[in-house]
Every structure is written in structure tokens, then in C-alpha cells.
Amino acid sequence: MFPLIPFVVVAYLALYAFAISIPSQSVLRTTLHREKTSLGPQSSLDSWIEQQEKISLEKLLANVAPGGSNTRDAAPGTVIASPSKQHPNYYYQWVRDAAITMNTLVILYSSHPSSYLSSKLMPIIESYATISTKIQHTPNPSGLFDDLSGLGEPKFNVDGSAYTENWGRPQRDGPALRALTLMAYLRAFNQTHPVLWTSLGGIDRFADLYSANLPANSTIKADLEYVSRFWQEPGFDLWEEVDGLHFFTAMVQLRALREGSTLAAAFGDPGAAKFYREQADSLEKTLLPRFWNVEKDHLVETLNSPRSGLDCGVMLGALHGTPSSCSISPSDSSTCNYAPYTDEILASLLAMIKDQRYRFPINTIPPFREGDADVDELAGVGIGRYPEDGYNGYETIPGTGNPWFLCTSSVSEILYRTHAYLTHSKSLRVTSRGLPFWRALVPAILSPATFDENSSEFKEALRRLKEVGDGFLAVVRRHADGEGSLSEQFDRVTGFMRGAENLTWSFGAFLEAVRAREATTS
Ligand code: NOJ
Ligand code: NOJ
Where is the GH15-like domain (predicted)? Predict the structure, then answer.
């Protein structure tokens, strides 16, 4: 029985490794040092993307310890949200931002494990695992480690100590995102060190991250126990403003439980494997369907909220709550529920774009009027968090919200991932739910039907997904500054950047969109 376990671990990790190993050609070209090239406004989007990709990685790493030039007094493994220490002060480690950022670094590492870049990334990722354990155990205003309540704490000081001021807490997406990143790291390590893994005995080497012991004393298991115990409980949303049940949170919780169930089985913890699977099934059946609003014909981010429900969090839920392998081999339909290419996500995306187009003056240059016949409903525009947003980067005043870089890039990523899905599935099935999106994309699509890969509609859909995705990255390009810096927001009237400067997540979301774009050309 016993020698079987390492084998099972290796087999599991090999099976899942493909999910994070989608090749990213650009990483080959990416170095920590960027050449100085100046790109004028006429240069192609491709060359700008290539340059901005290097800059984004460099500026992202500047916000990560150890090594980041903006993180000198931060504990190793810390991701600062932004170097901005005042107006606004974002010089903290947010559990969400850190997990999302580190996930990007794990993907970069696993794409080219023997590169110079990866030799720098490995110690960073290992420090992240260590600091994650430490902050889990740090008593904080959300609670303690012992009953797991403290794991819902959203942000910590950069030395890993608790932040004790008032805040929107708990936030229940953090443990799920952290578990997802650490599980991706385990798979990446196994994939790149199969011999080392076997000789060290993967299970023992990583007992700090996962072991069957209860009460949980390993990092991933503590997070999975937290998710299992609290997914039905309300908490603050990813924007830290509203207490309730949220689509983004539910999506990342579901994915963490599904991947956690597989991991538990591989680590010789069959009871937990079953328990996490049951929790996942229950979340999927009882909670997730409630986010589809039949009257509105789109997903809503928060249940029972007075808001419209249109929200960038819905797109982020699709992107972070489903593995990117769904676009390539959606073998297990339940793992891929609400993946980027699904009718529910595309319908919600269209509704969001339509709202944002007329909400911000910068989106209407040249001036579009609602109802103009020849307007491409999907032409690139700046996308904010949600229509009612009043946070302008410094303070909250109703009506002063702005487009965000990370949301604008995420629209591109949804469209590129949909492109990859169509390419691999070789046909386009338009249902009545998906029809408004597909008709906006390809006006020749007039009613629900299935189009095979040789049809003109299918070919046009592929061309347009890429074109429209590029249109949103062109918006990012327009509002970035000459150095390639990306703040949190760009002003709804002037278009100039505002809010926290060099926001780590802005760079990560751009890098993820570019990675998805590369998969459309391979
Ligand atoms: C800072 C939060 O991080 C942001 O999401 C929120 O909108 C503002 N505070 C206003 O509450
Ligand atoms: C405000 C955003 O709303 C939130 O999602 C993020 O975690 C923090 N800023 C830090 O970037």
C-alpha cells in the first residue's frame, strides 16, 4: 500500500501539470532587464505588447520580496499591492492580490523551469509559501488560526504583522486563492523535479503545505478547511465594500475545493478528498446557480444586492475560478462551469461592456450616441469595477468611479480564451442565451445554430474574438504612461492614470491577458 502513494502523487501531479503548462512563448523572450526601445504611437500593437510585457514583469517583480526594489522593508514572500504609501496607502500585503500575483509567477516558472528568470522565481515562490503559513497563524481582527476564523483576514502589514484598523472583513476569497496558488506550485515543482520529488518523497517534503492531520496544521489544508467551513457564510466582496455572497468568491472557492479534493487523494487523505468533493458539489448545486438572474439575463456579482450586479468580479470569477485548460480540453464539464467561453459569462460581459461604453466620457471619443446604428458594440473601451462604483482611487464620492486597467485587460483575456476554446472545439454552438453576444460579435449570426469550422460565421467569430480582444488591450496602451507604468485606474474624463501607482495586479492582469493571446496564435 505505502509505495503506491508516491506513485499516485506523481501521477496526479503529472496529470494536472498540463493545466499550468500552456506554453508562453513570450517568457522565452522575457528577461529581467529590458532593452531601451522607444515605440511611437504608430508602432503596431504587437510590438507594444512585446515591450509592455517585459516592463510589466519587471514592475511586478519590483513589488515582490525578496528582491523587489519597492519592497526593502517587506518580509520575504510578501507582495505589496502598490508602492504607494499615501494618497492612497496601498503599501500592504493583500491576501487576494498576493495569491493572484504569485499564481502568475508560478505559471511563468512552470513554462520555462530552467530559465534564468525561473532561478529567481523559485526562491520567491518558496518564501511566499513560508510567509503564507506565518500570516495564517497571526492573530488578527478577523480571528485566530485555531478555529480558522483568522484566515478570512484580507490584508497584513508588509512585515507580516496584523493590520488592526477598521476594514471590510472577513473576505472569504483569500484562503481559496492562496490554496489554488500553492497547489499550482506543488504541481509545478513535481513536474519540474520528478526525480527529486520521488527521492525526497513528495509527501514528506511538502508536509508543511499538505498533510492529513486534523485539526489542520498544514497551509493548504487549513485553507481548504476554511473554505469548506465558511463558503455558505457571507463576507466582504473582492472590492472590500459589500457584505454578502459573491460570484467571484464562490467561483474561486469551488475551484479550490475541486483541486483540493484531488490533492487530498494524492496525499493519502481519502476522507478529506471525499469531504472536499461533497462541499464542492453542494456549492455548485445550491449556491452557484443563484447568481444567474433570469430577469436581467446576466450573472450578478452579489446576491440580494440593490446594485445592477454587472461587475468585473464576474469576469474575474470566470478567469480565476476555472483552469485555463478548460479552453483546450473541457473534459469535465463541472470543472468548467462558468468558464470564460460559456453563455453566462459572455452574456454578462456584453451587458457590462454596453454599460461602461456610455458611462465614461473617455469611452465615447469619437462621440458615440447610444443607439447609433453603426457602432460596434464590442469596440474597445475602458472597463471599471461595476456601474455604481464611486471610488475614484483616493476617496469614495458617488459618480466618480473610473475604468480600471485590470478589468480592461480581463475583458481581453475572456475573449482570447474564448478564441482558444472555439479553435479546439472546432465548432460554434450559439444558444438563445449566447445569441446577443455572438450577434454583437458577428452580425451575420441571426439565430441560434451550430456553425462548423468551415463556415464563414465560425471563421469570422475567430477573427473578431482576436480583433475585439486586441481592441481592449489598445485601451490599456492608450492610458499607460510613457514608461509603461499602470496605476489602478484611468480618469473617466481626462484618461490620465489615477489611484495607486504601479498596482501589482494591473501588471499581472496584463501578463495573463497576453499569455491567453499567445494561445490564440499557436
Ligand atoms: C479601499 C478599497 O480597497 C476599495 O476597494 C474601496 O472601494 C475603497 N477603499 C472605498 O471603500
Ligand atoms: C482595492 C481593490 O478593490 C481590491 O480588490 C484590492 O485587493 C485592493 N485595492 C488592493 O489592490
Answer: 55-514
Which ligand has the shortest distance to the CA of 165? 1
Nearest to 97 by CA among 52, 156, 55: 156
Known catalytic residue at 225: no
Alpha-helical regions (H) of 325-368: 343-359
Burial label, 301 (beta-carbon count in 10 A; 0-12, 13-18, 19+): buried
298-299 and 292-293 beta bridge pairing: antiparallel
Residue 467 is classified by DSSP as H
Which residue lies with its CA nearest to atom 8 of ligand 1?
391
d(CA 419, CA 430): 14
Q: pLDDT tens for residues 248-257?
A: 999 999 999 9
Closest residue CA from atom 1 of ligand 1: 240
Clarify whether 470 is annotated catalytic. Answer: no
Q: From the CA of 240, give the closest atom in ligand 1.
A: 5
Residue 445 β-bridge partners: none
**Region class of 395: left (phi > 0), else alpha (psi between -120 and 50), else beta:** beta
CA 501–ligand 1 middle distance (angstroms): 15
- Name the residue with the closest Cα to ligand 2, atom 10: 81
Tell whether ligand 1 has an atom less than 6 A from the beta carbon of residue 241. yes
What pTM value is reported for the model?
A: 0.92
Q: Check if 396 has its Cβ closer than 6 Å to any atom of ligand 1.
A: yes
